[in-house]
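Tutorial, part two.
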Amino acid sequence: MPLNIGDKAPVFTLKDSDKNDVSLSDFQNKNVVILFFPFAFSGVCEAELCSIRDDSNRYNDLNAQVMAISVDSPFALAKFKSENQLQFPVLSDFNKTVCRAYDAIYEDTPLGLRGVAKRSAFVIDREGIVKYAEVLENALNLPNFEAVKQALSDLQ
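Running the prediction step on this input gives:
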């Protein structure tokens, strides 16, 4: 069932690229931007996450913690994070539980791969409520980052 604005965000704990546990509840004093992305090392995913990296000051100014989630292993994500100099947590949902909880999963892809994270963006406020939700059907499209920043600005 899709998450809607006003819903309580599903809580989770996942392994980051350093194999540490990271929970949504770790960031209760901040607004959180959750970005689901299909594959580390794919061109669109690199462009997406590097654009967030390059705009990190704006997200910091909006008191927002960005985190990116894919179904890749923590080992692949460590290399991906390092090569792209990402400064925010990159989390592995290898078991696909969080993708499913956020209804952000392609059960099938044009490549025939099942259980891949849908490119999505969520803004979660300090109380754990969804303030913005965008789940894309086409993995070649990027989330509307201006709308994400506007949702964060509205929380200030």
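The mean pLDDT is 93. In part three we will examine how such features are distributed along the chain.
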